[in-house]
Specification:
Strand content: 35-45%
Radius of gyration: 13 Å
Structural class: mainly beta
Number of strands: 7
Order of helices and strands: EEEEEEE
Oligomer: single chain
Distance between the termini: 21 Å
Helix content: under 10%
Length: 97
């Protein structure tokens, strides 16, 4: 499946007032792109980084101004990764696998 993922620090799709978004575009390379907002729940913040697990493309990591989020199902559900995992709630500007 050809899916393009991107993050924004400002809103382009969806309700006004949301600082940033995580989006997926399916059908991008076939010319039939369908955008879908898959932004993690929680505070309205900028999302500045995104990584896709090279072993399982359904696993996504999104870095925001308030920490790191993980999805195991291509962005349908998100879990915040924080102090319980040894990572503080801090701005994430880059995510590498």
């Amino acid at each position: 499946m050809d899916t393009l993922y991107l993050t924004t620090a400002a809103t382009f799709f969806g309700p006004n007032g949301r600082s940033g978004s995580v989006l997926s575009l399916t059908g991008t390379f076939a010319g039939t792109a369908v955008p879908r907002t898959i932004t993690p729940p929680g505070p309205t913040v900028a999302y500045r980084a995104l990584a896709i697990d090279s072993n399982d493309s359904r696993i996504l990591y999104a870095g925001s101004d308030t920490g790191l989020w993980r999805s195991a199902d291509a962005g349908n559900n998100w879990q915040r990764i924080g102090p319980e995992s040894g990572l503080p709630y801090a701005p994430i500007r880059d995510v590498q696998m």
